[in-house]
Each structure stands twice: as structure tokens, then as C-alpha cells.
Amino acid sequence: MWVVATAGHVDHGKSTLVRVLTGMEPDRWAEERRRGMTIDLGFAWTTLPSGGTVAFVDVPGHERFVPNMLAGVGPVPAALVVVAADEGWMPQSAEHLAALDALGVSYGLLAVTRADLADPGPALARARAEIAASSLGEVEAVAVSGATGAGLPELRAALDRLGARLPDPAPGAPVRLWVDRSFTIRGSGTVVTGTLGGGRVRVGDQLELAATGEPVRVRGLHALNAARGEVSAVSRVAVNLRGVPRDRVARGDALLTPGRFHSTDLVDVRLACDPAADLPASLTLHVGSAAVPAGVRPLGPDTVRLRLARPLPLLIGDRAALRDPGRRHVAGGVTVLDVDPPPLRRRGAAAARAGVLAGLDGRPDPAGELRRRRLVRAGALTRMGVPVTVAPVVGDWLADPEHWRDLGVRLVAEVARYARAHPLEAGVPVDVLRRRLDLPERALVEALVRPPLRVRSGRVSAAPVDALPEPVARAVERVRAEYGDRPFVAPEAHHLADLGLGPREIGAAVRAGALLRLADNVVLLPGALDDAVRVLARLPQPFTLSAARQALATTRRVAVPLLELLDHRGATRRLPDDAREVVAPPG
Ligand SMILES: Nc1nc2c(ncn2[C@@H]2O[C@H](COP(=O)(O)OP(=O)(O)O)[C@@H](O)[C@H]2O)c(=O)[nH]1
Ligand SMILES: [Mg+2]
């Protein structure tokens, strides 16, 4: 099924066109039929010559009902722009087009209606030019008459061509069904309807109400007025919810796959409209079927922070429209850049944030998110709409590799500092390290501990190094201080000698696990192996020696024996053409 929303000025023939195409009445309310004017959204569908089904969301054209129009268009990826031949391009034609453009709708058709009343040529030419300058771009145009039926076969064929161009929905996507209607049916209880844009809903599924987070159970499903056990995107769908009073769910709420969305009342967005500084301090954000008042705080020239009056289940990359309800004016579109932005407390934080946002474009960027957040749970990333592409460091914690390495170095320093301050204690309590490194969980501290450090009875100690003769232990400490942040750089032999590490001392340190020997006179700190696998796992697989050397920022002297050792330990595999691949990243 394809879903197409109508758009256009009041009385230009949108509802008439939907009526003659589908044989169904889109104006559902008695008041609408009495006044001959659409007030709220209407729904109708028909089968096209190809055999495909097109469902229409028919929107009101009157300027008072633009919020209803936006709720109808928000979740729908394609539009049928309607302009009357006898009246031509009008203010609400322009405002509806601005709304489509703000939402980034990029599939559409132009129908010039009432072609029996006037030459459709001028209206068609003007509308086409206006539309071409929007996100819809060049569209097919058809002149029709709802009164005589002229042009309807051409319009049906054009709808078929439009449907064939629409992108396929992602069947495995999480469900975010924006509710556009809710009502009760005697004997069944609460029913909500919406346009399912991705994923699949089944009878018996548990979903979540976005507004409250409360779990709801799907009791029944309808699509095209027929009961169904399962409905896949794209589809208009009616969902009967078990045990949910009608007043608990309304237009603007959403049914969600549990645990897959992050409801947020604070978002950083990029504007495609007036400069940030010219926007009013409060506007209404329209996204999906929701309309929420938003406080606007300019950050950069085209980026702002929005504080929403109530939380919404938004994803990075979502498109939304900003509207000034006082001036009845669509101010423009926004692209969501961050759904969990940092607070701006310190002086200069807003300017720094603007700098970060300048580099974002709303496309999910897994490595960038890690770099900015440094440490984040895999689930939190998924809930922002960012795919997880690296292995966790422990549990479901993902770490920016550079930050993780830095934490490892700091941990070693903290252990040494504590040992000096508390010489009689057998190591640092894990919780003390957790606080000093400002980590959210003890497991992260434990995951950072590398030989020769170890965790024993809730404390991190350096016992094996202490067991080394004093001068050797001190020399190893110096290697750690000098090379801790360059884990793949091996000290030159003469430098080792200068530090007092001759072959015998190195042997003792290697046996104690304080150094890692790759070859004669090529030693690294012991965490280097795991760190290397983590870095290599991020390369496109398989990778060459030279790619590995560059990624590790090291020389052949280190890279060659390091990779051989990793092969030997089964962490990497050497392929027939001498390229390698990572077998299993460290958990
Ligand atoms: N002659 C003629 N009248 C039309 C045509 N399409 C719509 N109308 C009339 O125009 C008026 C407004 O139509 P309607 O579909 O309600 O417009 P909407 O506000 O865009 O939904 C109604 O009186 C219709 O009967 C057409 O193609 N030819
Ligand atoms: Mg209408």
C-alpha cells in the first residue's frame, strides 16, 4: 500500500478528487458535510490499475486548520498537491507547500482540478514552478475534473508511477506509529489509527504509549476495513488496544516498539528557514502527528536548541516543521541533530555546542557519537537512531577508543598515587577508582585493569610489579609514564638501556607480566594486545599490514611481530593474500 496526503488551498477540490478516485467519503463529520468543508483529516483508499492500493490522507485546506493538515502530512512520505484551474496558486497552496518542504517530503504529484471551469495551463505552470523549488522538486502534473471525470485515468496512472518510485519500507524497523485518530468502538474499546511507515505490528504485540511509557497490548488490527493478524509497513492501520481508556491516548501520541525510542524534551536541530537569531522565542514543533510548544534557544547561525513542552519519541535525522501559531505561519523545517544533548551550564558552552552542531548533518554517525559521548550504553545509542558498530568494552558499555585508552592510563596513575598515600593497604578499592575516574559502574573500572595490575577482593593492586626488584619496577613505571598514551610505540633499545632495562631486567618484567615482548628489544605495555584488536576491529575487513600500521600509528618493527602474535593467539586471522581480519573483538 502507498499512502499519499493531499495538500492545497481550501475549496480547490481535494476532497472531491479523493471522493471520485476512491468512491469513499473523506469528510467524515456531519459538520464537514453540512459546511462542504474539510475540518479534520479524512481517509479513503482505492485500487490502482497496477493492482496496488493507494490510501489518501485528505487534509483541510483552510488556514485555521493547518495544524490538522500538519498532523496528516507529518507521517506520510508523499503528497498530492491540488490547485484549482479557475483560482490558481493561493496563500494556502503556498503554506501547504511550505509545510511539505519543511518536513522534507520529496515524492509528489500535482493535480490541477476544476479543469472544466477554466484553462488549466496557467495554474499548472505556476504550481509546477513553485513545487520545483521545494523538497518535492520536479513533479508530474495532471489536469483533472472532479465534475466530468476528465483526466482521472491519467491521474490514476500517475499515482501508480509515483507509488513505484516510493522507497521500500524497512520491514525490521522498530514501530513508531503516530496516532492521528482515537475513538471507541462499542464492545472493542479504544482504537487508534495512523500511517505505519516502517516495521510490522501483530495482534498480541506489546507496544508502548510514547506519552506515558505505559505498555499496551494489541487486541486487534484492521487495514482497509478488514481484520488482520498482522500489518506491515507501509499501511494505514487501525489498532484496537486492550484495556486502555480512550482519554489516555490522543492524536500526537505514538505507539512504539518497547525500549527502542528515547522520549526527549530537549533537542538540538538544524534549521532550513530564517536565521536562528530571527526566530521567535516560542514556536510550535510539528512532527509525526504531534504538535508541541517549543522554546527556541539559538546556538549557531542555523542551529537551535528546542525545549519541548512535553517529551516526544524523536530520532536523530527526524524532520519536523516549526510554525508560529500567532502569525499562522510555517516558519520552516528542522532536522534533528541530537536527541540527548549536553546541558549548557558553563560560560561559552553554547558557542562550543554550536561548533559541534556545525559538523553534524542528521545522518547517524556511530563513531562521532562515541567520540562526543565518550562512554555510552549500546541501547542508548540505538534509541537515538544510531546503529551500534563496535563491540562493548564491558556489559553493554561502548567506549570511544581514545577515551578508553586515556582512562587506562589514568587508572594506572591513580593506583600508583593511592599506593603512595596508603602504603599499608593492599591496593585501591574499586569504588574509589570509579569515583576518581568518574565512571558510572564498577564493571568499567574492572574492565580497565590490565596486567600487571589486577583486581582482588574488590581492590586494584599492582602486586606483581612490586614483586620485581625495586630498580626494575621503577624502570617499568617510567616506561608506563612515557608510553602509556602511545600504546603501540616500542621504546628504542638504547632508551631501554638508558632506563636500566637490559635483557635480564626485561626478562624479569616480561615474566611478571609488566611488559609484553614482541621480539628481541621490542617491548610494549601489556594492554597493547587488546587495544590493538579494538583498533583493528574498526578497520574495513580484511586489512593490510600497512593499513594496520597506520591505524595503530606505529612502525613495521612493531606491527609485524604484533600481528603475528595476534594471529598466534587467534585474535586475527591471516588470509591467503597476506591480508588479515579480526576474528573476535575483545569483549
Ligand atoms: N466544476 C467543478 N467543481 C469542482 C471540482 N472539484 C471540486 N469542485 C467543487 O469545488 C468545491 C470545493 O471542493 P472540495 O473538494 O470540497 O475542496 P477542498 O476544500 O479542496 O477539499 C465543491 O463545491 C466541489 O463540488 C471540479 O473538478 N469541477
Ligand atoms: Mg476538503
Q: For the residues shown, what is the average pLDDT?
A: 91
Bound ions, cofactors and other small molecules, one mention each? guanosine-5'-diphosphate, magnesium ion
Helix content: 25-40%
Give the CA-based shape.
elongated
How many H/I helical runs?
19
Portion in beta strands: 25-35%
Q: Using DSSP, what is the number of strands? A: 31
Unreliable spans are: none
Helix/sheet category: alpha+beta
Main sheet summary? 8 strands, antiparallel
Tell me the distance between the termini.
Answer: 43 Å
Kindly provide the radius of gyration, computed on alpha-carbon positions and rounded to a whole number of angstroms: 31 Å
In short:
The chain has 587 residues and is α+β, with helices and mostly antiparallel strands. It contains 19 helices and 31 strands.
What does this structure look like?
The protein is of the alpha+beta class. It has 19 helices and 31 strands. The strands form eight sheets. Strands 7, 8, 9, 11, 12, 13, 15 and 16 form an eight-stranded antiparallel β-sheet that branches. Helix 5 links the parallel strand 5 and strand 6. Helix 11 crosses helix 12 and helix 18 crosses helix 19. It is elongated. The site of magnesium ion (MG) has 3 residues, from helix 1.
Write the layout of secondary structure elements.
Blueprint lengths: L1 E6 L6 H9 L7 H6 L6 E6 L5 E6 L7 H8 L4 E7 L6 H12 L4 E7 L6 H13 L7 E4 L8 H14 L10 E3 L2 E5 L3 E8 L3 E3 L3 E4 L5 E9 L2 E3 L1 E3 L2 E8 L11 E3 L6 E11 L8 E6 L2 E11 L2 E11 L5 E6 L4 E10 L10 H10 L7 H8 L1 E3 H6 L13 E3 L1 H21 L6 E2 H7 L5 H7 L5 E3 L2 E3 L1 H5 L2 H14 L9 H6 L4 H9 L4 E4 L2 E3 L3 H10 L7 H8 L3 H13 L3 E3 L5 E3 L5
Parallel strand pairs: 1-3, 1-4, 4-5, 5-6
Antiparallel strand pairs: 2-3, 7-16, 8-9, 9-15, 10-14, 11-12, 11-16, 12-13, 12-15, 17-20, 17-22, 18-19, 18-21, 19-20, 21-22, 23-24, 25-27, 26-27, 28-29, 30-31
Helix pairs in contact: 11-12, 18-19
The chain binds guanosine-5'-diphosphate (GDP) and magnesium ion.
